[in-house]
Write a structure and sequence with these properties.
Rossmann fold, 275 residues, seven-stranded parallel sheet, 8 helices
Amino acid sequence: MSRQLRYLVTGIADEHSLALQIARQLKESGAELVCAGLGQTAHHDELSEAGRRYLAETWESFQAVVARELGEDTPTVVLDASVDGAIADACGSLRDRALVLDGFVHAIAMDRTIRRGVASPLLEVSRDDFLHCLSVSAYSLLAITRELLARECLRPGASIVALSYLGAERAMSHAYRNIGVAKAALERISRELAYELGPSHGIRVNCVRFSPYAASRAGGAIPDLMEAIGKAESAAPLGNATPEALAKEVAHLLQPRLEVTGTVRHVDGGYHFVA
């Protein structure tokens, strides 16, 4: 009898998160889930009261969504992808609970230059905001993978899938400047990890680019995205892809013994080749 597969899913913020749709698909396929969400850790001792309150509320909301949508028995772990110590603690928690993984979904991104529906032009992005976006949205893939391997929480032959977007490759008509640079770095990191981890661990690393999507918290913050969605819907041969289609592709890439790695897949109705 084959054992049950187990995957870590990051990036669930609310019921509209693409990561949640992926988690649902994995659960329907029979996989066991572990979900990581933002919350307060021992590494946040210098935060303001407002910062502490934000992290507490974010963690509470994350746990409520996971329990309601995926089941109250779904293991969760607190993860701040911008802090190396917090990443180490999260992976240590997985090890302590013997939660060894067959792969994980990287669906983490943050761009502080997009605020209240206004995005800064790239020339106006500060060094701090640029590096923070790069740290959370791209470097975290490397940092999480390294810590999981160091604690022997990632099985040989595991699969890693990161969510990206067409804005990693080209300038978009809507605001996707600073985060687009970070997504380009994410895709480059995924290829390097695929190159290194294939021979050493049999681990596969791939990215998936999805159609423009405004229902999530991250997508809803991007100015002019609704116009871009309309443009993509009319231009793509199959129209915009659904979150269900994305989830099925990610689940496919996560399955064992699939000899696909170092790729960037498109689930966008074909928009990438006509845009």
